[in-house]
Structure formats: structure tokens, C-alpha cells
Amino acid sequence: MAAYLRRQGKDVSQLQGCLENDPLGVLTHEGKLPLSFNQAYDEMSRLLLWAEKHAPRLHTIGLHSYPYHNSGANAAQELAFTLGNGAAYLRAMSERGLDANVTARHMMFHFAVSGDFFMEIAKLRAARILWSQIVAAFGGYAAAQKMRLHVRTAVINKTVTDPYVNMLRVTTEALSAALGGADSISVAPFDEVIRPPDEFSRRIARNAQIILQEEAYLTRLLDPAGGAYYVEYLTDELARRAWALFQEVEGRGGMLAALQAGFPQELIAQEVESQTAKLATRKDVLVGTNLYANAEEVLLENTEVDFTAVYQQRTQQIENYRTHDDDPQAHTAVMQKLGEMLTAPPEEMVEAAIGAAQAGATLNEITRTLRINDGERPSIQPVALHRRAEPFEELRRLAEVYAERYGRRPRIFLANMGPLRQFKPRADFARSFFEPGGFEVVYPKGFDDVAAAVAAVQEAEPAAVVICSSDDVYPEIVPPLAQAMKEKSGKDTAVFLAGRPGENEELYKSAGVNKFIYLGANCYEINHQLLLALFEDAD
Questions:
Q1: Contact between residue 449 and residue 400 where contact means Cβ atoms under 8 Å apart
Q2: Per residue in 454-503, pLDDT tens?
Q3: Single pTM value for the model
Q4: Of 502, 451, 504, which is closest to residue 475 (Cα–Cα)?
Q5: Are the C-beta atoms of residues 241 and 76 closer than 8 Å to each other?
Q6: For the domain bounded by 390-538, which CATH number is listed?
Q7: What is the distance between the alpha carbons of residues 405 and 465, in angstroms, rounded to a whole number?
Q8: The CATH number of the domain covering residues in 18-300
Q9: 323 exposed, middle or buried (CB, 10 Å; 0-12, 13-18, 19+)?
Q10: Which part of the chain has CATH 3.20.20.240?
Q11: Which residues of the chain does CATH 3.40.50.280 include?
Q12: Could you read off the pLDDT of 297-329 as tens digits, one per residue?
């Protein structure tokens, strides 16, 4: 970039932004680095020295919380591990003779925010408090303790099903980022997890934050959340938990040692297990995915980019660039400049690299020269980046496969017994329980007797039947109804009961009820088992 700007006659000292040098962040989500940490920190220090002299407003170190956030870390873990990376960089730069005041001035933090509105506000506010303490501990003055904070809407809570809900998600996330004190915000298009965003989705993403600026006037307030008791309490509580975990990481030798030992990965995996269970039982909700699902929706088309072809094309262009140049003087100039990099002092290394780029050296040639005597490259078990909706989206995919194979989606029949007021609460619940699995739910009027219900079931030919009524009539109607369902519709037809069975569980099971669905039941597991059973029976 610097070589290009100088070639264009531009003033490099006016460069602003962030080059996002974050080796610990890359190691966390990739599991490996293309260079040793000693080399990574040497390059970090050289780039920082160059920026301090030639581009003082350029941030060269970008600390990302994304690997932690989008792998399922809770807010305290995200803070502790990201700030742990920051402490590691301050320490490494100090060992190379760079003062904390200089290093901190060229650092920018990149946090992700999800849908827990107040927690995300508190997280960003706590980040500033904790970072100021860390910089102060390294000898940084008040000016260096200020955190430059960029915030991005998260990926982990975005959905492929009912994707337009993502518009609402990113809007609340942008609001929490603004109230939390972000210096800059990136609002992702609603379809980013599905396809390359189109013009419509990009425009909506831009307008979400513009509305917060121009119509909600959030930029006119210095600290909109300041003084709110709940926000202040939550900020303090979160900061204390994050600080305790940060100290534990430091006690283990810092973030690199902790990652190599698998400590952050283990804590995040435990958190993900808890989150997954809450989503499966619908204690946590993803609207349009595990609750209020529209099983009949037509999903957005996935227009994937062939990155392999792009990579191959670019590789060929680079090869042609070097091999088809018939000017021997150009090759000589490149080799001379690359040689100068090997003998340049640390503070002049970046200038030497810029000179090589101006002579025509490729990025690969420059980096290979920089790392010619590099040591062992680290590797760890990476964190597992994922989206929380993926298990339920897999249910919908299975249902679509079933529909393509057998001509219709798998069907659930609600055996609604009695008048509307008697069956409706349980019937509505049952419909919302199976629609996330992609099932077609048949919702008839109430039946007055067992024979009428059984006849309707035989006509519908469902994959499963759900008996829906009230607790006071269940002991009377469930045994004969379940038994008749099994006899008339076949033993392969699963029979569910909407509601907890209580002391009658064994009675209902002996009559033919297979499972019970109720608040807190594992929606994902029951839907998944039923879908798998359908494929097994069909095969």
C-alpha cells in the first residue's frame, strides 16, 4: 500500500485505519500460523516502528474478539481472552524496546456483538475499563489507556431460515454497539451467511446504522448508557468476572501458553454445550428457527463463489507476472532490493520492503525474504467457529430431502380432542414444536370421539400423531386413543402426547404413547430422531 501511494505521489503520513496484525487471533481460529511467534512479534515491532515514524495515525495491531465470540464464548471469556492477547502484544513489544505508550497508541480492538442487548453494552464498556488498567500496569499514561474500538455484528446468531429476521438482529446489535461506546461499527448484510450480499442487503445494512445516527441522534450523546443503574451494575459485574479470568490466564503463562494447553478452548466448549442445550430445549430462542418457524418458506438461493477458481486464476497471474517479463534489469532490481532487506536494521526493514515492492517484488517474495531463517511454527487445537442455528437448519434440510424423495414434506397430525378452549393451547404448542423440524403440521378442528380422530389420522397418513387436549381428560381419552392409533395406523406411526404425563406416564406408554412434548422438552432431539426414523422406515 505504501509503495502504491508513493508511486501515486500521495502522502503516506495521512494513512488511517488498521492493518490488523493479530497473530494470536489467527492462531485461535486457524490452529496454526505461517511463521513463528518470535518472527511474528519481530515483524509486528518493525511495522509499528515504521508507522510511528511515517504514518502516526495508522493502527498496525488489530485485536479481534471474533474467534472467541463466534465460537460461543460468553462475554466474560471474550473479554478476558481478547484482552489477554492485548497484554501479550504489549509484553512482546516491550521486550523489543517499544514503550507501552507507543504500542497502545497503534492498537485497535475489534469486538463482535450479538443479541443480548444489555450484556453487549456492558461488555464494550467493561472492555475500556479493563484495558485502561492493563495499559497502566505496563506504564502507559492516560492518553495511551484509551481504547480504539471497532464493533461488528456477529455471525454466530445469524440464520439461513427466515433470513429477514437477521435485519432486526443486526439493528439491535448496532444499537448496543453505539450505546456501548463503539468508535466505529460494521453492520453486516442480512444474507452474509447464505451468499455474497447483493445490493439490496448491503443498502439495508448501511441504512441500519445511518438511522441510528441521523434519526435516533445517538451520536449527539457522549455516553447514552452512563448512569443507568442496570447497565452500570452489569458492567461492574462483568468486568470483575472477566478480570478474574484474565488473571487466571496470566497465571498460566499468558494467552499463547493457555491456548497451547487448550484452556480457552475447553472453557468455550463447556459454554457451547450449555448454549446448545438451551437452544435445543428452547430456553433460548432464535426466531424463525427453533420457534415461530415457517416450514413452508422458500429459502434464499445460495450463489456460492468458486474461490478455488479465483485462487488458481490469481496464482497464474502471479506466475505470468514474473516469468513473462523479459527485462533482465527489472529482475536484477528486484533481487537487489530483496537482498537489501536481509541486511537492513530492524527500524528500516519496512522501508526496505517498500523499496522491494516499488521495484516489482511480489508479496510472497517479500514475506519469504523476511522469514528466510524462521523457526518452528506453532499449532494448536483451534476453536470451533459455528452458528447456533446450524443444528435446526440441518433438520429443515432433512425435511427438504424427504420432500424431494417422496413428494411431500413429512406430516404431523394433531389429534385435537374436545372443544377449542380445551385443545388449542396444547395444539398451538405442538405446532410450534414440530414446525422447526420442517414438518407439515395438520391442525384440524376438535374431535368428539376416538373413532372420528382415528379415521382422520388414517386419511392424513402422517409420520406421527400428537394428542392435544387438557390434563383433566387425558386419563380418560389417551389410553383408548393411543391404542386405536397404533392398531389402525400401524405400529410405525409415532404417537406423542402434548403435556407432561405426571403419575400417568407408564399408563400412557403402555397404551402406545411414544414420547411426551412439553415446555423444556428437547425440541431438536425429538425432531431429529423422528426424521431419522422416517428415513429408516422408508428405506
A1: no
A2: 999 999 999 999 999 999 999 999 999 999 998 887 667 899 999 999 99
A3: 0.92
A4: 504
A5: yes
A6: 3.40.50.280
A7: 22
A8: 3.20.20.240
A9: exposed
A10: 18-300
A11: 390-538
A12: 988 988 877 888 888 888 888 777 666 555 666
